[in-house]
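Late entry, written up from scratch paper. The run itself happened at the end of the previous shift, but nothing got recorded in the book at the time, so transcribing now.
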Amino acid sequence: MPTADKHHRRRRAATMSKSNWFRLSSFQIFDLMFNQRNIHELTCLFTIVVILTCQCLADDGYEMDDFLKREHSLTKPYQGVGSSSSSHWDLMGNAIITTEHVRLTPDLQSRQGAVWSRVPCYLRDWELQVHFKIHGQGKKNLNGDGMALWYTKERMQTGPVFGNMNLFTGLGVFLDTYPNENNNHERVFPYVSGMVGNGTLAYEHDRDGQSTELGGCTALVRNIPHDTFLLIRYTKNRLTIQIDVDGKQQWRDCLDLPGVRLPQGYFFGASSVTGDLSDNHDLISMKLYQLTVERPQEEEEVEELTVPSVDNFEQLNKVEVQEEGMSGVQLFFTIVFSIIGIFVLGVVAVVMYGRWKENSRKRFY
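Output as recorded:
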């Protein structure tokens, strides 16, 4: 009996050990599955947070469509540029195509060139990223004249505004490298500025467009060893210009203005001009993106614009026309004639006094 009882207890202990092992294995398997599920959920959550954060940081709250608008973009190897019927861009003037860039003007005097899109743009909200390079042999302030980027009703026109026509209709963004107004000490050149023309507003070349500009900033873009970029964003009637010219791969604000109203169906372009002073003006790429922006229902039903305009433009124009002071020669002659006038008046007064005195004596005789 004792032997049988011992054997029974051994079998019971073995059975309990197997049961405990199965229970332990089940808990381990469940714990492993639970941990894998948590890891998967945490991974998904982290991915979503990263995507949302990158979108916010990359575009300041605007969702950029990944699809590049190629019919409005100019990129290497520039196959869509030329005179063929399938081309989306036209060259004019002294502009040429190389494997690395579209050179609007060479570093030679009295040259002008441009490139213009053939396809009108009907995007309501867009962003244009421009990669460019301005360089030459001229020293500081002995170079010129700069280049311009356009979104205008007219295309393929020549004129005095960086190689394009004056009295244009639309948007012009100017990269001015030479100060024409020598008395202006407020700006440091090269200087980036924006202007909206309505077909009757003239760009004053001699005053560097100060009377019509919407704002701007200094951008040291000549003979830079790193890449230089400019961004133009138009959305919800707001015009934003940013630059990246410091080699830090960071956009820097240059102009941010609400109340800018640009019609659809205009053409993108770039132009440049040289005079007595010159530079190489190279356009490496122009990339246009469509911006996806939510609007209230009432904004969707706004009547179509026909003429570009800027709200409260008169208040933006803070440039006062000051009367020029007299030069040294003018001051000299003014003093001389004043002295002569005083002398003549004195002589006349003496003569008149002498005659009056003589008449007074005759009365007593």
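Confidence is low (pLDDT under 50) at residues 21-27, 48-63, 319-325.
(Scratch paper discarded after transcription.)
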